[in-house]
Design a protein that fits this description.
It comes from marine sediment metagenome. Belongs to the binding-protein-dependent transport system permease family. CysTW subfamily. Keywords: Cell membrane, Coiled coil, Membrane, Transmembrane, Transmembrane helix, Transport. Residues 308-540 form the ABC transmembrane type-1 domain. The protein contains 16 helices and 13 strands. It is α+β, with helices and mostly antiparallel strands and 556 residues long. Strands 6, 7, 8, 9, 10 and 11 form a six-stranded antiparallel beta sheet that branches. Strand 12 and strand 13 form a beta hairpin. Helix 8 runs parallel beside helix 11, helix 11 crosses helix 13 and helix 12 (424-432) runs antiparallel to helix 13. The two termini are 50 Å apart.
Length: 556
């Protein structure tokens, strides 16, 4: 290419077009690659991995047998292996070591173990090896030897697996009944008793004489609640007696035979005996349990439904709060305010608010919303509960308001941009036909601006769903015992604290006592958070596109 043609090609701007296209392509590849990495590392955790029986010859210990799942393998240098007492053959510069999940934490101390390939002996995959998912102490591995009822062996040999399945199904059904009674029915009784206590306290504050008809009614209702409570306690005692009936005997890797109560078992499976179809069915069931279940074991086991619910609900409340305030502010600044130095200063302030660190909003939310607004609400409306706070403590409402405050500049700017693109002729035509300014704004301008409003809301949702720092100060907790929605009036409890996927990732990743067990859950939770943000954004984009089509149709 001659210098002249190159110069003309350069001046035409084509290089910048190609450069931008390349940058976009690289960005897309990086985003897709990151999502794939998160998905593989997270969702792969739920696949029922085969269980190995390994003979291991550590020179410093007796030969032993390990029963474990293979987690990962890494190649390390000879110098690094030397530091842990492993000496490779002369001339060999690298060696392999494997991370195994040996489980049985209550018997072995740790449920993950690094072993060196140099000392690995015979490896086999017996089909009768079982993996047990427990409610406490993580997974358990071994050979199923017997099923017991009230301490007596009732099944061994070929019949033991079928007996286990029948009794495990019964055990899990009893656990579900117990949970239903403790969480819902007894929870409702506790709520009723607490309401009576507060009513009595309020009567004391109002000067109602003790022994009056109001006091007698409270005592009568308390007796009725106590009668119901005693009946449920008896029912629970019977259920617990039935639940503790069955046990299983399992032989572990060191030869010991241990007894496990079925009340502590969630699931039992034999991955080495499964075919591909059975593993797929187990995999999807495990993913569903993760999405729909509640966390256990310091959030390193179980599901994350409370965190999903809290994240989605908080974002929806935030969207309901931020949209009207952002739109009203934008309409005033663009349509009603006299344009001058003060309005320009306000616009600069709004733009700068979008760049304020989120933790600053958290401090403001804690001071203004929680302590000032919430404290005054408690003083006026919830005196009987004091000194225990109701709205004067972090909760769902204050977290949503804090995020609404954080994202309102985005909605204001996007709505103003939409209003500025509406041709002046449309406004003048509406006014010429006799419509007032308010009617013109409400029936003509705002419907045409709706796609821009939705764009602002999309950006607000995308930012709010991933925020963590301010939420740690105004409502998010490690574990919320109850959801913000339940079957107790008023059914929606915005004063309650809640779980959040972003904080859950932080807590599991950095505060977990069992790092290796928590790592795959960090990936899985991160992938789920990204998927929820994508779903929320796609829903908003779909609504925006429909509004855009409606706006075009009305113009035609």
């Amino acid at each position: 290419m001659s210098n002249k043609s190159f110069s003309s090609w350069y001046k035409s701007g084509s290089p910048w077009v190609w450069l931008n296209a390349g940058a976009v392509s690289v960005s897309l590849v990086m985003v897709v690659g990151l999502l794939l990495l998160i998905a593989v590392r997270g969702l792969g955790h739920f696949w029922p991995a085969d269980i190995m029986s390994i003979t291991y010859h550590d020179p410093d210990k007796k030969p032993m047998t390990l029963i474990a799942e293979a987690v990962e393998t890494e190649v390390v240098t000879a110098a690094r292996l030397q530091k842990v007492g492993v000496h490779l053959p002369e001339g060999q510069k690298t060696g392999e070591r494997h991370l195994l999940k040996v489980g049985n934490r209550d018997y072995f101390g740790l449920d993950f173990l690094w072993i060196n390939q140099l000392w690995v002996g015979e490896t086999s995959y017996p089909k009768d090896l079982i993996a047990i998912e427990r409610r406490e102490w993580g997974n358990f591995y071994g050979y199923l030897t017997a099923v017991k009822q009230q301490g007596k062996v009732i099944a061994t040999g070929d019949k033991v697996w079928n007996q286990l399945q029948v009794r495990l199904k019964r055990s899990n059904s009893l656990v579900a009944k117990i949970k239903e009674i403790e969480k819902n029915e007894i929870g409702k009784i506790n709520h009723g008793l607490e309401e009576l206590r507060l009513q009595k306290r309020q009567d004391e504050l109002d000067g109602v004489a003790e022994g009056s008809l109001a006091y007698q009614q409270i005592e009568e209702e308390r007796k009725q609640w106590n009668v119901q409570y005693q009946g449920l306690q008896k029912q629970l005692a019977d259920l617990y007696a039935e639940l503790n009936r069955d046990q299983i005997m399992v032989k572990i890797s060191d030869g010991r035979e241990v007894e496990l109560p079925l009340a502590k078992v969630v699931d039992v499976y034999r991955p080495n005996a499964m075919n591909v179809g059975q593993k797929l069915a187990f995999y999807f069931e495990a993913v569903w349990k993760f999405v729909s279940g509640e966390p256990r074991e310091a959030n390193t086991e179980g599901g994350i439904f409370p965190a999903i619910f809290g994240t989605v609900m908080m974002v929806m409340i935030m969207a309901i709060l931020v949209t009207p305030f952002g739109v009203i502010a934008a309409v005033y600044l663009r349509e009603y305010a006299t344009q001058g130095p003060m309005i320009r200063l306000i616009r600069i302030a709004v733009n700068n608010l979008a760049g304020v660190p989120s933790i600053v909003y958290g401090v403001f939310g804690l001071g203004f919303f929680v302590y000032f607004l919430g404290g005054n609400i408690d003083e006026i409306f919830f005196q009987a509960k004091l000194p225990s706070p109701t709205f004067g403590a972090p909760g769902m409402l204050w977290a949503s308001l804090t995020l609404a405050l954080l994202t309102v500049p985005v909605v204001i700017v996007a709505t103003e941009e939409g209003l500025s693109r509406i041709p002046r002729a449309i406004r003048e035509g509406s006014l010429a036909l006799g419509a007032t300014k308010a009617e013109t704004l409400w029936r003509t301008v705002l419907p045409m601006t709706a796609p821009a409003m939705m764009t602002g809301l999309i950006l607000a949702v995308a930012r709010a769903a991933g925020e963590v720092a301010p939420l740690m100060m105004v409502g998010v907790v490690k574990l919320a015992p109850t959801l913000a929605v339940d079957n107790i009036a008023p059914y929606l409890h915005l004063d309650r604290q809640f779980m959040h996927l972003g904080f859950h990732i932080y807590d599991v990743g950095f505060q977990s006592p069992n790092v290796e067990a928590a790592r795959p859950l960090v990936y899985a939770t991160a992938f789920l958070l990204v998927m929820i943000i994508i779903i929320l954004n796609m829903s908003a984009i779909s609504i925006r596109n429909r509004l855009r089509e409606t706006s075009k149709a009305s113009e035609n």
